[in-house]
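STRUCTURE:
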């Protein structure tokens, strides 16, 4: 059995291998794709199996002086970025459920004081939001109007919520955000909510995607505790970077 669903691996291949592959040595691959949006005119992916993929627009390739037939490596590539002043936004860890763990989850009977939330829970959710900091709300991006929302309760109070939305059109991947109120952390609420909403997503034909910044140790710990497996590190060009930007 493959580690991850073809839905996941095919998505990343379509993102990074669609175009003119100018270098590929089995470990390091560079692809030029003229159809990338300005915000995504340069992206990199490092997978846990040791591969490094980069995709960029022809304009970015010219700025970096990249052409076919030249010996390259991820170190050389990063040095070229530095030389021309290209900065990246800051990598995210990308986690998914393995096929084996997904099968386990689908057989689980998830219990406890948690349930799916709907628009009828507006007052409950508003109270939950008012108890969280602006920073936590921004980081988690949990919204009641997302495609799926689940919450965990303690003494009839919503203390943890997770929501999902389709990652991109025509892609059966749902991006997940989760937030637990500070005083209720460490009690297992987030783990149960992540697994519950993920089971729902699987039953709807979607794969759960969990992202967090590399220095967010608590979020990384939660991903692993919930049964997710690290797929890789993904980064895009910084929004502030003007190199290679169309005018």
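SEQUENCE:
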């Amino acid at each position: 059995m493959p580690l991850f669903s073809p839905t996941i691996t095919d998505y990343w291949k379509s993102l990074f291998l669609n175009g003119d592959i100018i270098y590929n040595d089995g470990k390091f691959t560079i692809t030029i794709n003229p159809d990338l949006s300005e915000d995504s005119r340069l992206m990199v992916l490092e997978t846990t199996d040791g591969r490094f993929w980069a995709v960029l627009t022809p304009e970015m390739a010219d700025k970096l002086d990249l052409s076919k037939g030249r010996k390259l490596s991820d170190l050389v590539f990063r040095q070229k970025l530095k030389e021309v002043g290209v900065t990246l936004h800051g990598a995210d860890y990308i986690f998914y459920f393995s096929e084996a763990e997904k099968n386990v989850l689908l057989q689980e009977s998830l219990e406890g004081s948690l349930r799916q939330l709907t628009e009828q829970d507006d007052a409950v959710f508003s109270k939950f939001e008012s108890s969280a900091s602006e920073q936590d709300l921004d980081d988690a991006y949990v919204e009641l109007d997302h495609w799926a929302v689940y919450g965990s309760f303690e003494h009839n109070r919503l203390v943890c919520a997770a929501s999902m939305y389709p990652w991109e059109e025509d892609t059966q991947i749902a991006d997940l955000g989760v937030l637990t109120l500070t005083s209720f952390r460490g009690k297992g609420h987030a783990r149960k909510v992540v697994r519950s909403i993920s089971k729902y997503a699987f039953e709807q034909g979607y794969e759960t995607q969990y992202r967090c910044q590399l220095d967010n140790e608590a979020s990384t710990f939660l991903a692993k505790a919930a049964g997710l497996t690290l797929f890789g590190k993904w980064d895009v060009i910084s929004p502030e970077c003007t190199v290679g930007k169309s005018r």
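REMARK: The first strand starts at residue 20 and ends at 24.
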